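hiii so um. not sure if this is the right channel but i have a protein structure encoded as tokens and i wanna go backwards to a sequence. like what aa goes where. can anyone help
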């Protein structure tokens, strides 16, 4: 598949334009810190507006606006770079837009400056795994350099100075990051889209609309790859002028990739289907990861990578931390860390990934989710016990009781107590699974901190 050619060096004119703007960075998270370094290196003046003083120094700041009113009356700036954690529809940002102030983001600026073709990946869950696997597939072609970033952890402006037009860039993009876009990646990959972050977005419709920015501005020379098994993902094609590819776990998707007859298949436009590898070769657990693998293969082919060594890359690919991550086996009981499962759909998929009886540790901070589907999945699955923690424990317990499985509920004070209870209840051959279906912020700083504690407790001598 031919790639859109770069229009040549973009940065000089764009950064010259930035010198003429009154710029403010709204919030100093990971992305805006990368942006601050970028601006400072180019001697572009900027202000920082945040609710609190930064914990570490920031070079190049010309003006500070600190405190609870840091977003009040932003009209003394021309250009605002929003940190992803700040809702794009915050009334104070909307008021600034009505006064002609431009609201952008670090990722949007990267797209404007990037000299290399970009593939963007979004969806409700599976973005990180798909991004990492797609990077591994692209890296089998030694003739190109691959860069990955975005929501997976590395702000892309950190590597903008390294890029050449012959490179390839893969970005994992959250709904938070997509809201400011006025252009889309050359290739957009859309995984399953359900609902998430309803504590941040006004409703599901606004969440889906934010996701659609990944393809809304594509042209006829671009490519859109969508999950054919997801009704919402299929609607993204209505927003894009790009050539349509698909992927599926239920049948042929041409052009694209799919699972059939125990094989992972792929097909480029006008070519014959090829078998990539048996599904049994996938090292990732669960049918949802079959879909992620098909998405990665379709995206890699759309990006022009030869499929010659895909099978080898797929066989050697290991799950990312906190995503159905194998931790250990203790006394015949296997422990898995799925702390990044912060939605109902992700936890339901994790439950379905195991045939053995599961002791599920779930609960945490609210994201506005409806737990009825989780209650149904627990009642229908091979669940020996549900050990609930955190703010949402009562609501999950109610959903499980409503589904008729109230007898397996154990409410626990915290994660250590839940794991101790799971250890006492587990039998040989069982799986203890941390898959919370909730955010972590009631008891932890992040999902990673939660998952790391789980792993330490599992591996500690007291857990044996």
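sure thing!! here u go:
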């Amino acid at each position: 598949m031919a790639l859109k050619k770069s229009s040549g060096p973009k940065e000089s004119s764009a950064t010259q334009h930035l010198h003429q703007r009154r710029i403010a960075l709204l919030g100093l998270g990971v992305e805006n810190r990368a942006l601050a370094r970028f601006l400072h290196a180019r001697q572009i003046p900027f202000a920082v507006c945040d609710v609190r003083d930064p914990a570490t120094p920031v070079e190049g700041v010309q003006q500070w606006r600190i405190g609870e009113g840091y977003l009040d009356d932003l009209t003394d700036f021309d250009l605002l770079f929003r940190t992803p954690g700040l809702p794009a529809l915050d009334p104070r940002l909307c008021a600034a837009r009505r006064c002609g102030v431009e609201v952008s983001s670090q990722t949007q600026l990267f797209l404007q400056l990037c000299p290399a073709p970009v593939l963007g990946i979004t969806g409700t869950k599976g973005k990180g795994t798909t991004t990492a696997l797609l990077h591994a597939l692209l890296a089998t072609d030694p003739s190109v350099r691959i860069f990955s970033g975005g929501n997976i952890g590395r702000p892309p402006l950190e590597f903008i100075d390294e890029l050449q037009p012959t490179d390839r860039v893969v970005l994992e993009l959250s709904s938070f990051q997509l809201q400011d876009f006025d252009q889309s990646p050359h290739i957009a990959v859309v995984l399953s889209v359900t609902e998430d972050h309803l504590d941040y977005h006004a409703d599901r419709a606004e969440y889906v609309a934010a996701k659609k920015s990944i393809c809304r501005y594509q042209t006829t020379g671009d490519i859109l790859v969508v999950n054919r098994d997801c009704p919402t993902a299929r609607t993204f094609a209505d927003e894009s002028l790009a050539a349509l590819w698909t992927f599926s776990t239920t049948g042929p998707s041409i052009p694209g990739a799919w699972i059939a007859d125990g094989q992972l298949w792929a097909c480029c436009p006008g070519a014959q289907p090829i078998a990539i590898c048996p599904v049994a070769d996938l090292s990732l657990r669960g049918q949802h990861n079959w879909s992620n693998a098909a998405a990665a293969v379709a995206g890699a082919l759309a990006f022009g990578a030869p499929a010659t060594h895909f099978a080898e890359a797929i066989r050697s690919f290991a799950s990312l931390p906190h995503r159905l991550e194998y931790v250990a086996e203790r006394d015949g009981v296997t422990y898995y860390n799925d702390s990044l499962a912060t939605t109902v759909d992700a936890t339901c998929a994790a439950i379905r990934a195991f045939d053995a009886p599961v002791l599920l540790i779930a609960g945490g901070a609210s994201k506005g989710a409806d737990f009825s589907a989780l209650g149904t999945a627990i009642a229908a699955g091979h669940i020996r016990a549900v050990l609930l923690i955190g703010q949402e424990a009562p609501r999950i317990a109610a959903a499980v009781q409503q589904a008729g499985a109230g007898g397996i509920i154990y409410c626990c004070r915290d994660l250590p107590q839940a794991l101790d209870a799971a250890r006492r209840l587990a039998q040989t051959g069982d799986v203890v699974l941390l898959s919370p279906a909730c955010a972590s912020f009631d008891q932890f700083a992040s999902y990673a901190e939660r998952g790391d504690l789980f792993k330490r407790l599992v591996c500690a001598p007291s857990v044996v």
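oh and DSSP finds 16 helices and 20 strands in the chain.
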